[in-house]
Known about the structure:
Blueprint lengths: L13 E2 L2 E2 L8 E2 L5 E2 L3 E3 L5 E6 L8 E6 L7 E4 L12 E4 L5 E4 L5 E4 L10 E4 L5 E6 L7 E6 L7 E3 L3 E5 L5 E2 L1 E6 L2 E12 L5 E6 L2 E5 L14 H4 L4 E5 L4 E6 L9 E4 L5 E7 L4 E7 L15 E3 L7 E3 L3 E3 L2 H5 L7 E3 L4 H6 L10 E9 L5 E4 L5 H6 L4 E7 L3 E6 L5 E3 L5 E7 L9 H30 L6 H11 L13 E2 L2 H7 L8 E5 L2 E7 L5 E7 L4 H14 L10 E7 L2 E7 L6 H5 L10 H21 L3 E3 L8 E3 L5 E3 L6 E3 L5 E3 L4 E3 L5 H6 L1 E3 H17 L15 H10 L17 H14 L10 H8 L39 E3 L5
Parallel strand pairs: 27-35, 37-41
Antiparallel strand pairs: 1-2, 3-12, 4-9, 5-6, 6-7, 7-8, 9-10, 10-11, 12-13, 13-14, 15-24, 16-17, 16-23, 18-19, 19-20, 20-21, 22-23, 24-25, 25-26, 27-28, 29-30, 31-35, 31-36, 32-34, 33-34, 33-36, 38-39, 39-40, 40-42, 41-42, 43-46, 44-45, 47-49, 48-50
Amino acid sequence: MILLRKVRVFSLFILSHYAVKFCIGGxxxxxxxxxxxxxxxxxxxxxxRLGFFSPNGxxxxxxxxxxxxxxxxxxxxxxxxxxxxxxxxxxxxISDDGNLVILNGKKEVLWSSNxxxxxxxxxxxxxxxxxLILQKQSSNMSTNYTxxxxxxxxxxxxxxxxxxxxxxxxxxxxQVLTSWKSPSxxxxxxxxxxxxxxxxxxxxxxxxxxxxxxxxxxxxKVFIGTPEMLSVYLDGFSLVxxxxxxxxxxxxxxxxSYLSYFFLRSNGELLQPFWDEKNKQWRIDWxxxxxxxxxxxxxxxxxxxxxxxxxxxxCLRGFEPKKVEEWSRGNWxxxxxxxxxxxxxxxxNGSSKAGKIDGFIKLENVxxxxxxxxxxxxxxxxxxxxxxxxxxxxxxxxxxxxxMYWSGDLIDVRKFSYAGTTLYVRVAHTExxxxxxxxxxxxxxxxxxxxxFSIGTFFAWQKSKKRGGKDGHQFSKASSENVLxxxxxxxxxxxxxLYKLEELATATSNFSDANKLGEGGFGAxxxxxxxxxxxxxxxxxxxxxxxxxxxxxxxxEVISKxxxxxxxxxxxxxxxxxxxxxxxxxxxxxxxxAFLFDPLKREQLDWRRRFNIIDGICRGLLYLLxxxxxxxxxxxxxxxxxxxxxxxxxxxxxxxxxxxxxxGENQGDTLRVVGTYGYMAPxxxxxxxxxxxxxxxxxxxxxLEIVSGRQNTSFNEEDQSLSLLGLAWKYWxxxxxxxxxxxxxxxxCFEIEIIRCINVGxxxxxxxANDRPTISTxxxxxxxxxxxxxxxxxxxxxxxxxxxxxxxxxxxxxxxSANNVTIxxxxxx
Length: 829
């Protein structure tokens, strides 16, 4: 964020032909009272300020309007977007022809309101609504002014209350929002938002000339393709037809103190921040980029998008992929086609056996397709009208709209978890439920026969195994043994699926960089999609990594023997030629670090979600350290190794460095340390001693990162010598522990629970292993089963340590984990 520059008072001086007056108060600009950089004017109520500013990353000067009483600087309107002042010589004044202009030091006009001339007796005023208006005097002797121009008619990337998105139905002239080119360049970018006066009005977000997102039809109160509007904006938006050719959309909140706006980012994301007065910060209330299903037409014509399923795209019932091979690769843009001819199509083809008339499948809580056509206000007429029209592909009813129907392709249909509309899609009679009894019986019989055959085959295979048969799975294992030099002898491959290299190459587009999720010392992880549509994550061992081979064997040995809802699931492996790969279930939300350390994504992590993640990590560790049939020390627990599923539940991953303990073992020693600095316990980092308590230490660091939203390895703004542990201890000693909490968290009634978690985090990161709690005690502590928590001593590593990579490891290349140096050195067992 850009900080407000302090307004400085300058002496008056002569600028060419006239004296410059610095305007640091008042709300008026005239020919004799103008703004010289860095001056400004303030609206009469003190709500808004107009002045010169520079975006982050540039010294160029622009004139903009921003909230005056908000400590976090955010500009919502910029005058000279395309032509900045290159130094501090800028002036905003009234020109001789009465226009509002911005001049540079050479008195060149960089920007103008550009309205019809009416003389220098004009004035500009900044209103308390945030609108800058230019007024002309009716006559030389008159005190009456009429508005000739206003900033609300030249919107930039932000829509505030009482601004308008408008369209002239006669001329098709539109007032739109346009994104900045980049966060440091306010010039017009690639994305824009417009009100489209279709048969039923909608708001469109464009990437150039390509439709990128749509709001769904307007029903008189809300846009029905944006379910969040039901609870937030029900009394806010208005769509007005002024009967003079203009249709415009505006909004205003009933609660005057509620400060909010809509902001189009340079990357095409539309956000709705609101001001959190208690925590003095802008918080994101809504975004168009909550999931991939928000992208217009993600699944193509007659495709159906459901963000909670994997893959997210499927065909509507009665339809099948148009291009099967592309569909299996995750390219759904070609969409789907009907399996069976409709009744009308059969009649058009001259068929004498057109069969029974078509019917409709019912889809509830969906976003209706694009380009709806209004047909009737009566609900009971919808079905009849659609069925009697051969071009009608679907219909829906909304009380505020009436009957809507669609002809041609159905594009941008998606599932909502709540709200939405019920859509009826036309299909051939043979596709309807309840009309396919014979086909259902045949299908059921086929399934039963297949199951019986499979069971018989399985027992025959088991019998051949006992006789020493080498076919099937056994042959694959033998091949894998050859590739890995016999290292798989102790790994029970019969619990895993053995994939073919060709299959995985196809699934990952030949291991393309576009599919790469991250990279570590062992190699890279790729996103893949099998031919059946199932998404997977493929860990590919680097050919040059000798240490990776050991990790590969170790990870198979460890994770093939454990199963828990908070551990990532290993699906199978592949060892062909020189390739060694592990196949995992795909986690759509990637690592916890991708959410926690992203300034926008972490808005989704309110305290309840963060606490659930903390609790889930605890229970995964409890299983590894105490409850599984093996005792497993992870040794590299960190936020990037905590994956999040589609419901944001945590899954512990990356067991390449894990160690299995025997029945009586409690700790182990190693000559070479593996793990990540910043998360390693002191006795492990310095002496190579690891135990349950070393994993507890790592968990303590992760817990404090979740609470604070800061990385332990990143610089602290207040004191760059302090680590996150040092900062937590500093606040603890000052009895100001809530200062550590991520500003994105609304503390409220969770204050005691949050303080308890910080206390536990400090106890877990104590210098001495014996001073740390066991993982079972940690769970009791955070769930309030232990009432009086002990006070912590000073934790380990309170100051940042400058470390470098050692051995054969290399810096992690993952987007959100670049600050973690992972040590993955070879060691003996």
